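Q: Convert this sequence to structure tokens.
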Amino acid sequence: MPSSQHLLPILLVPLIAILTYQATSQSRSGFSPLLNLHNDVLSFFPLVLLRLGAPVSLLPSLGISTTSIVEAYIKRETPIAKAGVLANIGSNGSKCRGAKPGIIIASPSTEDPDYLYTWTRDAALVTRMLVDEYGSGADTSLKSILDDFVSSQHSLQQVSNPSGPALTGGLGEPKFHINHSAFTEPWGRPQHDGPALRASTLITFTKILLKNKDAAQSFVTDKIWPIIQLDLDYVVVYWNRTGFDLWEEVTSSSFFTTAVQHRALREGASFARSIGQIKAAAIYSTQADNALCFLQSYWNREENYITSNTGGGRSGKDANSALASIHTFDVSAGCDAVTFQPCSDKALASLIVYVDVFRDIYAINRGIPVTKAIATGRYPEDVYQGGHPWYLTTAAVAEQLYDALTVWDLQQRIEITNTSLAFFRRFLDTAEPKTYTSLTDEYTILTKEVKEYADGFLAVNARYTPLDGSLAEQYHRDNGKPLSALDLTWSYAASLTAFTAREKKILPSNWEWGAKGLKVPSVCKSNTGPTVPVTFNVDAKTVYGENIYITGSNEALGNWFPERAVKLSAAKYPIWTATLKIHSSISFEFKYIRKTAEGKIVWEEGPNRSLTTPSSGHPETHDTW
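A:
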């Protein structure tokens, strides 16, 4: 193998060829061909080295740091990613012919996989990025596209589809054809995150319009509020119902879904009050409290991570949790753990568990030290298209860390708890559960190391981004080759939001949506809806003073909190029994626990039990422990 000093001239040959080609192309377009060649070489060189397979460990010997790689990547990729997003928005986008105005396609790919549809969730997330650019003044020309988005969503809300009409479940339909017609083939439906995300995006947009006086109050109340209200009313009814999560593969409760539903209800209540919708505001506020209660149930105390999904036989270690954290980021809330803010102890502890699970799964990650960034995917059990890393999930890890750095910078301190200790000891092995102010050496070391770690994830994406800057959905776990859907809109948007987060910009969607100072209510209630009686029976022998309880993944069972578990009756000992009212047509998981007279809790061993309630009737279980 050639040494680094011999490798450099070898690698310069293709670089010069590429730049010469670019210069020639520019010359044909009327640009001075070599005017910025020196700057191009400096900025493009690290990316070429990566794409040619130069080991990351070699780059420092060539004077190339992770920071320089990331800054080169951001400089080159930002305009490409922005153009990639706009190309996928109808009707003027260059890669979405046939899409109506304001329709955001997932990808122009039409086979293996066919993504030429508009997903409510994806469109709302992409539009939030555009709203932030418009609202921060970075690109005021986006207003016409945002206006078209509003009109398109009003139309889509009224399209009758397999999930139903608008007022009876239709808003949970995940995707539509790009001409506004319903997609009627089999799919993972319903999905309850789309309406919540759309409501949040439109609320942010509307607040910007009113603040900048870019729209009359009457336009907001007559045109945009009805769209928001329909979505929020849907969330009120369906926030505690199981459905397909953002990966559309299993039906269960989903941390991401609950988190964005809580945000939508919380900011919806505030917005409704601001425009005089007092009755609606009260309803949204009540259900926001209940959703916040339910959100706490995803925390796995024993293993120190967020269980992102409660069903499907998975570990729950999932990008779902990082995505939830960045999309419910509220700078004013600091490192609040109740809403799992990016710098909260629970969000950081969960992030490191999620990242580490991919170290041995993907060949491209093997041999990389635990202090360094790697490529991440959706979840370790993933088999879709072979189960590979995703650009957007890897970028999300970087974004969460950048968000954390932003808050620490504002607070001028880092608070370490026993929960987050493992995360911080990854970067400073002498870290202790305490507060380090910005005047301490520990604060300086930790912020520097976390920044380097965050940059590493963007550097990983840079390594597997083609030289033309195009971003597919995934890249191969063995060789990093882009695969699956080409020009994925969400990949471009996720890269742009990570780039912005690195600059510590405080954007409209991340400021004071209502997360600050929240407390979990002492009594949590479920949302309204049809229920069925379910009788739980378990054959369990006990000793004197010991009782059997049941808890599980819904409010009726205490949301996995042992202190809220339901005590069973031993009237027919050794059969312990209880009859509870549970929402009809939902799936949930549960377990039995023993409580001793001294208060000791013993959980039932083995996997969680599961049950799906019928639309009517009186189901019973007959279990043995």
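The first strand starts at residue 118 and ends at 119.
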